[in-house]
Design a protein that fits this description.
- The chain is mainly α.
- Helix content is about 45%, strand content about 5%.
- Strand 1 and strand 2 form a beta hairpin.
- Helix 1 runs antiparallel to helix 3 and helix 2 packs across helix 3.
Length: about 210
Amino acid sequence: MAIIGLFTFVSALKRSENFVYKLFVARAKLLWGDNVHAFLLVVGVIVMGLSSLFFIGVWGFHGEMPNTDDQEMKTDKMLESQLPKQSLIMEDGGTIKTRILPSIGFQRVTVEVGSFAEYLRTLPLKPHGSPVLYYNGAEKNKSNVYMAVVDMEISDRDQQQCADAIMRFRGEYLYGIGSYYKIHFNFTNGFRVDYSKWMEGYRIAF
């Protein structure tokens, strides 16, 4: 903190052209206008002063630093004990919409019939408790990181990972409604790959 204060103070004093300081100036100038350097000069002094007081123990925490993780856990448990109990899972629900319920006091927003949002909400699910399987049939060993399994066939090759899943959902949705010319995705280098070109016989070569 003291280093930040010193940096701000010296930069404001010299009206530095340092990139970081120029970012400070750009933000602060919205409120302080032409007085921005004077403002940042004062900020630098205040930060250095508070840092010094904290260092010598006059201001700030005394003794052992509190364990914020424990405090947050206790707060969460206290709030949880005050809330009415509700299961958000309807085990017999066959889609995301009917399996996973909104919390008490909340409701799902209305979406347009035939939209991508409705498509996602109505994705078919495997029975509650079904394991997540890899492409080779092996079971994913971390059962506490997922709540439901979409009932959709995947290849027996390792071709669908991470973002590929949502890309497939989007592609399946557009294909299903006949919007073939809207199906396109970009490579990491920005190159756009259109399904319409694929239909015309074009292929990607690496």
